[in-house]
Design a protein that fits this description.
seven-stranded parallel sheet; globular; 9 helices; 250 residues; alpha/beta
Length: 250
């Protein structure tokens, strides 16, 4: 029986690569985004604003009908790069509403569909920033740490429903977000990464596929994310000193 997956933020970046990967594996794929997805990729596309619960209800009802959902990938996210003092209140609201409230909305509204799914899995896409907050990404890393915490909580809550939960934490990924100029300065995330680099969207897409077929909760993606995971666990003071060194006057 064909399995089904619904991916938010599916019009570009990690979401699009994830949709194409699962499509190629023979899954029925739905994507939701605030803009129309590419018609040529051969998946079902729905307009979805993850901030709005009614939008979630309409998109999932349109994709699932009276049936179930096997995998939900909460991937939609936004970032504004800059010091917190340079980020507007409207932008911090947007970051919280999309990155955290959007994931909460998805988990809550998808639950009845996941209960009817085949070996159902909720995949929440956080970030390596969830492991330790970095300068100029305060609001973003706060929301991604929240997604990690939510995933851990739901992993405990949803075992009663036989629904698995996975938290995927990619290193910085080559999308439009890492190329956008920062607030208060022109340098982007990619500019400031230097030799730490970014990886292509196909890397976290493959990690999402692996997570769906894994029994682990946490999935740091990429060598640098896995290194950060170990450093935070075993050498937290080293991480703090390293992060503080990054904050130099512009």
């Amino acid at each position: 029986m064909t399995r089904s997956i619904f991916v938010t933020g599916g019009a570009a970046g990690i979401g699009l690569e994830t949709a194409k990967l699962f499509r190629d594996k023979g899954w029925r794929v739905g994507v939701g985004d605030v803009v129309d997805g590419p018609d040529e990729i051969g998946v079902e596309s729905f307009l979805l604003d993850v901030r709005e619960r009614r939008s979630w209800q309409d998109a999932l009802a349109g994709f699932c009908g009276e049936g179930g959902l096997d995998v939900l990938v909460n991937n939609a996210g936004v970032v504004r790069y800059g010091l917190l003092e340079d980020i507007s209140g409207e932008d911090t609201d947007l970051i919280v509403d999309v990155n955290l409230k959007g994931v909460l909305n998805g988990a809550r509204i998808a639950l009845p569909y996941l209960k009817r799914g085949q070996r159902p899995v909720l995949v929440n896409v956080a970030s390596a920033g969830a492991l330790y907050g970095g300068p100029r990404l305060a609001a973003y890393t706060a929301t991604k740490a929240g997604v990690k915490g939510l995933s851990e909580a739901l992993d405990g809550e949803w075992v009663q429903h036989a629904i698995e939960v996975r938290c995927v934490m990619p290193w910085f990924t080559q999308t439009s977000m890492v190329d956008a100029p920062g607030k208060g300065r022109n340098a982007s995330i990619k500019d400031d990464m230097g030799n730490l680099g970014v990886h292509g969207a196909e890397v976290p897409a493959q990690a999402i596929w692996n997570a769906v077929h894994s029994d682990k909760l946490h999935h740091p993606v990429g060598g640098k994310a896995r290194m950060t995971w170990r450093l935070v666990r075993y050498f937290p003071n080293f991480m703090r000193k390293n992060v503080r060194r990054q904050r130099k006057p512009d």
